């Protein structure tokens, strides 16, 4: 599937800008991993692009590492001489730094070189410690701090207090909450919805346990009483239940149980609502990345990927709060 020109007919100015920005900033692959952690605006795209270097390096992992190393300060020098936003030691930079922005020089002080270099270096370390027992992600992170030789020597995270604290801090930050739900919960929501791709639409169908027969009848007279599947809000109820969050049954009530999200803070797993007003929400979808959503669209179709602008009356993006626990 490929992104199309955003449809903005009937959208308010703010909504149109939000939809266009999300679609134009995303790749054509709706299943691409997206950044969930808070990262300074000027570095977000660098982190997201650099993390495509290998499967072992996710955007959130790279962001958490850079936060731990320098707090995203590109001019930092550590007491032991580590330099820049990714805190490369000079010798390590000499052998692993790359000219990622193509300006003819490898500059450890330039985030456009240093951030991609750190991702590539993590990929290299992942390969060097791939056969070491234990948690592969923790071993890779530990190798960034202590070297792959130390991880190999000790058969896992070395018994150095600094390295162990380093690994704990980064691992904890990867799952850090951004708003009312955690990154891990939102990832669970996305994966749960993705697992239902292809399930048929059923008016009134779907609950916290999965697809179910629906009821009669939709506004156009379609009945879900003989179809096992989901309607739009039933899919949302199921996906969020897998993350331990109970939501109301209808799209309108789900919007009431959620907090609006600012355009710059939209995350995978957030809910995308459609309708002319907050009192007339008629459709809900689950945001994935780059302007793509997963939705149970309408009778006759199945759960699918779609662009946010597939309906002309986009209303808002909102994030459910775990405190809303009553299912109706």
Task: Provide a descriptive summary of the structure in words.
The protein has 328 residues and is an alpha+beta fold. The protein has 11 helices and 8 strands. The strands form 2 sheets. A 6-stranded antiparallel β-sheet has the order 3-8-4-5-6-7, with helices on both faces. The chain has a two-stranded antiparallel ribbon with strand order 1-2. The longest helix is centred in the middle third of the chain and has 18 residues, at 111-128. The two termini are 35 Å apart. The model is unreliable at 1-10, 25-29 and 323-328 (pLDDT under 50).
Q: Given the helix and strand composition, which structural class is it?
A: alpha+beta
> Shape from CA axes?
elongated
Biggest sheet record? 6 strands, antiparallel
Average pLDDT level: 86
Count the E strands. Answer: 8
Major sheet: arrangement of strands: 3-8-4-5-6-7
Low-confidence stretches: 1-10, 25-29, 323-328
Classify the oligomer. single chain
Approximate strand percentage:
5-15%
* H/E topology pattern: HHHHHHHHHEEHHEEEEEE
Report the radius of gyration as a whole number of Å.
22 Å
Architecture blueprint of SSEs:
Layout: H1 13-24, H2 41-50, H3 59-70, H4 90-96, H5 111-128, H6 136-146, H7 148-154, H8 161-174, H9 183-194, E1 212-213, E2 228-229, H10 232-242, H11 251-256, E3 258-260, E4 271-274, E5 283-289, E6 292-295, E7 304-307, E8 314-320
Antiparallel strand pairs: 1-2, 3-8, 4-5, 4-8, 5-6, 6-7
Helix pairs in contact: 2-5, 3-8, 5-6, 6-7, 6-8, 9-10
Compact summary:
With 328 residues, the protein is an alpha+beta fold. Helix content is 37%, strand content 10%. The longest helix is centred in the middle third of the chain and has 18 residues.
């Amino acid at each position: 599937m490929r992104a199309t020109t955003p449809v903005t007919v009937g959208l308010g100015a703010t909504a149109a800008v939000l939809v266009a920005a999300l679609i134009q900033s995303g790749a054509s692959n709706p299943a691409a991993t997206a950044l969930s952690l808070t990262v300074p605006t000027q570095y977000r795209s660098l982190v997201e692009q650099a993390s495509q270097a290998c499967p072992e390096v996710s955007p959130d992992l790279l962001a958490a590492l850079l936060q731990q190393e320098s707090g995203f300060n590109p001019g930092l020098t550590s007491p032991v001489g580590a330099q820049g936003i990714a805190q490369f030691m000079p010798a390590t930079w000499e052998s692993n730094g790359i000219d990622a922005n193509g300006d003819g020089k490898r500059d450890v002080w330039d985030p456009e070189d240093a951030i991609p270099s750190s991702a590539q270096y993590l990929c290299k370390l992942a390969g060097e410690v791939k056969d070491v027992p234990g948690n592969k992600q923790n071993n890779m992170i530990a190798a960034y701090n202590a070297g792959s030789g130390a991880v190999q020597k000790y058969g896992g995270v070395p018994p150095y207090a600094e390295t162990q604290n380093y690994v704990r801090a980064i691992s904890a930050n990867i799952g850090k909450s951004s708003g009312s739900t955690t990154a891990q919960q939102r990832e669970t929501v996305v994966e749960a919805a993705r697992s239902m791709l292809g399930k048929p639409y059923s008016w009134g169908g779907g609950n916290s346990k999965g697809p179910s027969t629906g009821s009669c009848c939709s506004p156009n007279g379609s009945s879900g009483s003989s179809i096992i599947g989901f309607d739009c809000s039933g899919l949302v109820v199921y996906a969020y239940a897998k993350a331990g969050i109970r939501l109301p049954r209808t799209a309108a009530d789900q919007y009431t149980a959620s907090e609006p999200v600012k355009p710059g803070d939209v995350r995978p797993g957030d809910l995308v609502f459609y309708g002319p007003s907050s009192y007339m929400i008629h459709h809900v979808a689950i945001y994935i990345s780059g302007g793509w959503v997963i939705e149970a669209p309408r009778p006759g179709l199945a759960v699918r990927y779609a662009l946010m602008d597939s309906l002309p009356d986009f209303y808002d993006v909102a994030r459910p709060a775990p405190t809303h626990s009553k299912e109706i």
